[in-house]
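Troubleshooting: if your tokenizer reports a length mismatch, compare your output against this known-good record of 246 residues.
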Amino acid sequence: MTTITKISDSSHCIGDINRIALHENFIDLSIKNFVMLQTLPFNDHVAEYEAWYKKYPFVFRSEVAAIKELLPRGENIHGIEVGLGTGRFAKALGIKDGIEPAENMRELAQKKGICVIKAVAEKLPYKTLLLDFVLMNFCISYFENVPEAFKEAYRVLKHGGCLLVGFIDKNSRIGKYYEERKSKSIFYKKAKFYTVSKIEKELKKAGFKKMEFSQSLFRDLNRIKSIEAPMPGFGKGSYVLIKAIK
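Known-good structure output:
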């Protein structure tokens, strides 16, 4: 997978202009009002974020297993992760490039060897028809505009490329647990949870036609003590992954 080389004194990354390149109209979003405001708790509570994954290691590994099953692979496959946080999933999945608006999280991801651009999902800094895949995992709940983010993913994908969207189903066991405790949570207070049907509908509106569904996390978080094998479909697992093909 091609790596984008980091430009000195900048969070922007650029490499082979014919393969992985910045959109010619991309500008530093730090000087714009178009900001993913929900990233604030993540930027201020990085330690708590990292501690959660250490507390539930098999939850993380089960989610990684589900993504690996649907993630395109190959020497000439190029993709990004959107809202990659501290780079935990990107590192585990071998994804070398992506975007993250929260500065403190972005810095940790860069230390893992991931090339991270400061940007938001609704304005991806990549050229049209460039990528084989885009991964949006546990980030759609914090987007300012989900339909716009899906349209942007569609724009940067090649024909036949795919968008993978991983999220906690609002109607699931864990989804209901999070929804009930939103007011007391640092991270979920401003989050918006979605049903599978809602995300499927928005993906179709963005232009995606063919979709694959996978699911994992079939028990309560504190009862997941081993890696759960993903299953096709949705409705049983709290974690749902949709592979939408352009």
